[in-house]
Amino acid sequence: MTESTGPGGPKPPGTATTDRRGFLARGAAALALPYFIAGSVRAQGARPAPSERLTIASIGYGNQGSGDVGTLMNKPQLQYVACSDVRSNKLAEMTNRLEGKFGAGIGAYGDWRALVDRDDIDLVHIATPDHWHGVMSCWLMASGKDIYCQKPLSLTVAEAWAIHETAQRFGRVFQTGSQQRSSGEFLRACEYVRSGRLGEIKQVNVQIGGPSEDRLYPAQPVPPELDWDMWLGPAPWMPYNEERASGNYGGGWRQVKDYSGGMMTDWGAHHFDITQWGLGKDGSGPDEILAPADTPEGKLVYVYTETEVGNNVRVVHQGPANGVRFIGELGEIEVNRGLIRSTPESILEEPLGADAVRLYASRDHFDNWLDCVVSREAPITDSLVGASSVTMCHLGNIAHWSGRSFRWDPGAREIIADPELSRFLSRPMRAPWHL
């Protein structure tokens, strides 16, 4: 294991030394680069010369990462120059795929820290297990890169807000991969809710799976293609097991507390995100989290004492299945991928008027990010949106894991008057990793 290359820390052998002044200078210079690709050129499918494209690297080539790379490599304004994965076989697959499109010379790294000091990389796409998102995002933004990081944004509340603060400090364009905000049915549902079509909102039902848990697995030999120590990264050391490292949704690392928050964060990063959007609570959050044992229905409940669409709104975690249902005085709107319907049907049949609330509209999540890299405007799920939405997920997990209800101060980002539960907001990291 080479030494840490975090901001201000030692650099790995053979890499350039880059100080904070250099980071900031590159960030300022990025504003002046000729990155705008005319719409007519995009429409014709023409590809600009490499010198006129944004340069990009990807980290992670699992199920999500490979799909993302397949999309990004076909964006005409992008030029891939590097990639990284801790599995040598996956790294070779990704490198071969990219070189088939962009030609030889793609930098291939088992240790992602090599990307930190490469001055020729504008953007980095991150599609790793959740426990890596905080460290990678913060170190790469501090080195002058704009970031697309797959959801859920972080492993803890502290990591989420460290990402946001780093994006603000270094002026980076950060997009969280909660792509439902770039889908028309979710935009429409939230605009109808925010425009008062349901009257005052009383409750929101959110259907997702449950939290992760502590899991022990028997030790197995580490596959020769895998750098297991690097896969673990900031997480506690544990022996390798195929299931522990698996990306399978039925088990794998998503269900292990050391690496993920379970379906509460994996799908919660989508549906709790839409809940926050519909309630007008981006950048904020609930005021109280009630553990299942403390509610009449035996379910996790979030209490918002005041939102844009009503007072004392209850958000109820309904358990497995999928979707969001806004329940108001005048009816209901249910929304999921490819689905939007209302009760009564007339609510959605009548178009919104000129005085309706209109929200940030994006037709494509990657294109929205790339457009904002050029304009330096905030993308639709920027670091503030991502941090506040995933915080809601993490707070629910804390109530599930502890079995206790608590009050939350969304402005101070603190659990009120409960030092014991407050320890859940962050976790120690294995050396040499840090935020």
Describe this entry's structure for a reader.
- The protein is an alpha/beta fold and 435 residues long.
- The protein folds into 2 domains: 20-180, 3-Layer(aba) Sandwich (Rossmann fold); 181-211 and 265-425, Dihydrodipicolinate Reductase, domain 2.
- The chain has 15 helices and 15 strands.
- A 9-stranded mixed sheet has the order 13-12-11-7-10-9-8-14-15. It has a 6-stranded parallel sheet with strand order 3-2-1-4-5-6, with helices on both faces.
- A hairpin with a 4-residue loop joins strand 14 and strand 15.
- Helix 6 (157-170) packs antiparallel against helix 14 (383-402).
- It is globular, with a radius of gyration of 22 Å.
- The two termini are 18 Å apart.
- Residues 1-45 have low confidence and may be disordered.
* Unreliable sequence segments: 1-45
User: What is the count of structural domains?
Assistant: 2
Shape label: globular
Highest CATH level, the class of the largest domain: Alpha Beta
Keywords:
435 residues; Rossmann fold; 9-stranded mixed beta sheet; 6-stranded parallel beta sheet; globular
Secondary-structure blueprint:
Blueprint: H1 20-30, H2 39-43, E1 54-59, H3 63-72, E2 78-84, H4 88-102, E3 107-109, E4 123-126, H5 133-142, E5 146-149, H6 157-170, E6 174-176, H7 184-194, E7 201-207, H8 228-232, H9 242-245, H10 263-266, H11 268-279, E8 288-290, E9 301-307, E10 310-319, E11 323-328, E12 332-336, E13 339-343, H12 346-349, H13 365-375, H14 383-402, E14 406-409, E15 414-415, H15 419-422
Parallel strand pairs: 1-2, 1-4, 2-3, 4-5, 5-6, 7-10
Antiparallel strand pairs: 7-11, 8-9, 8-14, 9-10, 11-12, 12-13, 14-15
Helix pairs in contact: 5-6, 6-14, 7-11, 11-14
